[in-house]
Amino acid sequence: FSSTTPIKATLFPGDGIGPEIAESVKQVFTAADVVIDWDEQFVGTEVDPRTNSFLTWENLQSVLKNKVGLKGPMATPIGKGHRSLNLTLRKELNLYANVRPCYSLPGYKTRYDDVDLITIRENTEGEYSGLEHQVVKGVVESLKIITRKASMRVAEYAFLYAKTHGRKKVSAIHKANIMQKTDGLFLQCCDEVAKKYPEIYYEKVVIDNCCMMLVKNPALFDVLVMPNLYGDIISDLCAGLVGGLGLTPSMNIGEDGIALAEAVHGSAPDIAGKNLANPTALLLSGVMMLRHLKLNKQAEHIHSAIINTIAEGKYRTADLGGTSTTSDFTKAICDHL
Amino acid sequence: FSSTTPIKATLFPGDGIGPEIAESVKQVFTAADVVIDWDEQFVGTEVDPRTNSFLTWENLQSVLKNKVGLKGPMATPIGKGHRSLNLTLRKELNLYANVRPCYSLPGYKTRYDDVDLITIRENTEGEYSGLEHQVVKGVVESLKIITRKASMRVAEYAFLYAKTHGRKKVSAIHKANIMQKTDGLFLQCCDEVAKKYPEIYYEKVVIDNCCMMLVKNPALFDVLVMPNLYGDIISDLCAGLVGGLGLTPSMNIGEDGIALAEAVHGSAPDIAGKNLANPTALLLSGVMMLRHLKLNKQAEHIHSAIINTIAEGKYRTADLGGTSTTSDFTKAICDHL
Ligand SMILES: CC(C)[C@H](C(=O)O)[C@@H](O)C(=O)O
Ligand SMILES: CC(C)[C@H](C(=O)O)[C@@H](O)C(=O)O
């Protein structure tokens, strides 16, 4: 790709603060001469019978066709039987791995320095099966489903990621002392894949101990791979170490090279439309998308501008203790480019 | 009770470092003139057919008879089909609530100051049902079971605890946006109980967000109540905030006033028998046991001696960066009494 051949990418601005932070991404990309032909997609206002969701058929086709996209926060309409839009996207597009890097932002102080963690979460099954029922009155059950297929592909993704990103260690997180069969199968798959990567240090860590060690000494970890719910929990914990979901990017990986980068924070309806939102998570997710497109130079250029703007501290949004508007902060980043 | 009428209590010294730290408790209690008639119980070396576990019938009867006990770490013998001894005790004795206070120890610095959290964990069901099977090759499932009965009693325990301990807030931790039926039932029970305690602030927090907020700002929380696995995870996370499981006590609560205080750290076979173990978690669990027995004055006396010894910093075991032996540290506490 050259920056003069526009690349087509799906953009879901999403709800609440979504459109504002998506606008910020467009401006920053333009300022960096990264020409993306954004295929903007809006979620429907009623259920599309072809998807059984507010996500339309066109929404899904757009990602499948462009193979790459960026997604803002989506609020699931409240009411009976509406599946979470975030989850519907992951399932319908078979986005099997969710990659969430969490690293300390230079200049933005938290209790932790030099955090540098990658959580890789199985994204399609486990505790998110949606299979639940009442056995008798007052007794309900949920099914956690673990398959060899989904465990193998996420384990393979994690080790390949570690190798191609110069990472030294993969920790498989589990509770196989209790869920011997499900988490046991997950671990067995990780064990199998680990054998093909003798150069990567491999360990298994029980989730409760993992959480304790993460808050005591996050430097013990590097790449972490795990079933769906543990990934949900641990990726938020890791985000907390460096300042929260407003600062951490993510990308969902599917088959055939499909990748949907995503800001995983909420849609913050209380500040929506007020030019107060922090676009950092979506911007950094955009950077992940560029890296996925192998536009590494442009990705690093934009990444530095974001990091430096935050580090300088002059322009920061309210969530980081500053008084800047979304547009001031965005302009400051553009000025760095 | 007066300190001259010996109270009978079960003591499981447990495995690994268990006997050494149990000895420390006995010495400290004696130095504080707390006379306990310890009914020492040792786990069997083969399966007792009446319990289908290495825990013997006598082990269980001892707790049921004395109604109060203290337990060191137990290592589950490795091999086929051995249930975890810790879990067997909880299930067989119907110890339905697991209370784990996590508070900053004055003088022992971590990244967090003034942590003061109580996690109350449902202790008998949920993800710990043990119900799992292979559906077809490569597809396994685990059942998470939530019952109204177990949810109500742990919710009631949590609110009563909050009230009787002068706590202001109870947070119910869940993932009901995904597990609507199971975690939904748990929340419904918490909602119902909360209505009876209008003076206690009540909120519901999604587990991923809870973990993020706990590492960002633990002062947002007070008492937390949750299903089994979330309790396992969050109590370890909270312990990490104040230094780890070597410093945090716990108590398991059953029907009819039964209470089994427990150090939940491991048996540390690598340092067993070397006079190196830190007895703090078991000592503080012993203090919880004394409070349960309403021996509040004695409990506070011992508690202060432990806290002050750690705060002074002269006698600390290796895990806290010191060079003291278990017996030196124990003696230092006794000298404070
Ligand atoms: C919104 C919610 C359904 C979602 C999840 O549980 O996966 C979110 O927490 C996330 O991590 O993306
Ligand atoms: C040892 C293990 C089975 C146990 C649990 O998972 O409950 C432990 O982590 C605990 O928290 O007491």
TrEMBL record, chains A, B:
Example of a GO biological process term: tricarboxylic acid cycle
Record bears the keyword Lipid metabolism: no
The Isopropylmalate dehydrogenase-like domain, residue ranges: 8-333
Swiss-Prot/TrEMBL cofactor(s): Mg(2+); Mn(2+)
Keyword Transit peptide assigned: yes
Pfam family, one: Iso_dh
UniProtKB keywords: Magnesium, Metal-binding, NAD, Oxidoreductase, Transit peptide
Record NCBIfam families: mito_nad_idh (TIGR00175)
Listed name of the protein: Isopropylmalate dehydrogenase-like domain
Annotated source species: Arabidopsis thaliana x Arabidopsis arenosa
Lineage of source species: Eukaryota, Viridiplantae, Streptophyta, Embryophyta, Tracheophyta
